[in-house]
Amino acid sequence: MKRNRKMLALTLSALMTAGLLAGCSAASSSAEAGGTASAAGTAVETGNPGGEDGVFTIAYAPNESNTEAADARNGLAEDLGAVLGCEVEEIQASDYNAIIEALRTGSADMAYMGSQALALGVERTDLEPIVMKAEDGDPEKAIYHSVFITNAANTDINSIEDIKGRTMAFVDPDSTSGNLVPTAEIIQAFPDDGLNSDMLHTNGDFFEAVSFSGSHQAGLQAVVKGDVDVAPISDQILASEIANGNAAESDIKIIHESGAIPAEAMVVAEHVDQATRDKLTEFLTSYDNEQYFTDVIKVPGARFIECDMSDYEEIIELNKIINDF
Fold first, then answer.
1. How far apart are CA 113 and CA 100, in angstroms?
2. 280-314 pLDDT tens trace
3. Do 45 and 275 contact (CB within 8 A), yes or no?
4. How buried is residue 65: exposed, middle or buried, by Cβ count under 10 Å (0-12/13-18/19+)?
5. CA angle, 89 as apex, 85 and 92 as ends, to 5°?
6. What's the pTM value of the predicted model, to 2 decimals?
7. H/E stretch holding 262
């Protein structure tokens, strides 16, 4: 199910050429709770998508916590519960690592996550992406970008080449557009500096000071308030924040845009049986609640389209390269 990932592939190729390779809830996860996984590690049918406690749990990353988003998540939970025939609850995880752990331990059955979190997750558990977001439901638009922003009043920073020695706020260690891809973009932009991930995340090595904001929104506000010079953010989240009045377009300027990144996915945990996976895929690819896509997915008019692990191969490889120093 490969889609157009040309720009990401070029970044991956450039990094390799540069020699960087040298440098339902917990009960449903156990065999006693219905045999959700075979001895070979593949999901088998249990006839009970909610597990022993009757609850199917969806985990979301900490990128939104407003009332509108919570209402929209609840709406999907109710609609999905009617399809699965069990209670569905949604939880907002403290960070991306917490989502992976919840899937691994059975505390969550499904999760909405970015591609780097997915790349890290496959190293710890046998999760599977089943659908990904796509603008207008168009497979060719199942992408987004990481953009570097600075305060509009900052006349000293106008391109990625100007960020050395500044203050930087990445989003989260496991964020694709807020850490992994920006790290790769900086390394590629400074080929003579011999950079690696550790150097970019250590005060004084490349940046004067570097931190993690915890969310795209927090990074945006840090730039707007002048607390940091530069922050990377998903272009779709940036557009959503401006559209919702949380920042003005005139507050910031974009100084760099990455290549295309595969969109966020809904992934299912290893213990979720095949019959449930099929129901989830059918439900999500036909789901058309606009409030959900506007307030939770952050892309008005978006829809879910079917996907598989092949859509994330390049991000998985990029994650291995960047984190293999």
1. 9
2. 999 999 999 999 999 999 899 999 999 999 999 99
3. yes
4. exposed
5. 155
6. 0.75
7. strand 261-262
